[in-house]
Design a protein that fits this description.
single chain; about 150 residues; alpha/beta; 2 domains; 5 helices; 6 strands
């Protein structure tokens, strides 16, 4: 398989690590989408990262019957269409609360999902200058989820 020369998506190291962690946890759960070229080779339209990271493995592939113009439309629109989906934060919070993983990279991905969805109590580290509070000192606020205590401001 060869990548489409106009693939416009790039894949940072964090995404590569998260993909590897997800595949280690559950295996391949999505297909590489390709089209057949006139020379009978397959051209990747979606799944460039999977194909790159797991080049030595057999990958599930869905082959579409698209000409070059249709392939460009597909390449330009697939990820943006998926990105238009909205987040049901309550549903996501419930889902995330039921996932347990010891994999640091996968946990980073899940924490980022929670943070991006502004889920209250998401696993966010306090600032370095966050003061320690003696248990005997009265404070104005306490986070019900993580137990951090503070006074002043919200």
């Amino acid at each position: 398989m060869e990548p489409h020369p106009q693939n416009w998506r790039t894949h940072p190291d964090g995404q590569r690590s998260a993909l590897r962690a997800a595949v280690d946890a559950i295996g391949f759960a999505d297909v590489v989408i390709a089209r057949e070229l006139p020379n009978k080779k397959l051209q990747i339209l979606d799944g460039h990262l999977r194909s790159d990271e797991f080049a030595d493995e057999k990958l599930p592939v869905l082959v579409l019957d698209l000409d070059e113009d249709e392939a460009r439309i597909f390449l330009a629109s697939l990820d943006p269409l998926a990105g238009m989906a909205e987040t049901d934060a309550e549903q996501l919070e419930q889902l995330l609360s039921e996932i347990e993983t010891d994999d640091e990279e996968l946990q980073k991905l899940l924490d980022k999902l929670a943070e991006d969805a502004k889920i209250p109590g998401a696993d966010i580290d306090p600032p370095d200058d966050f003061p320690e509070v003696d248990e005997d000192i009265e404070v104005e606020h306490e986070c019900p989820k993580c137990g951090y205590k503070w006074s002043g401001g919200k």
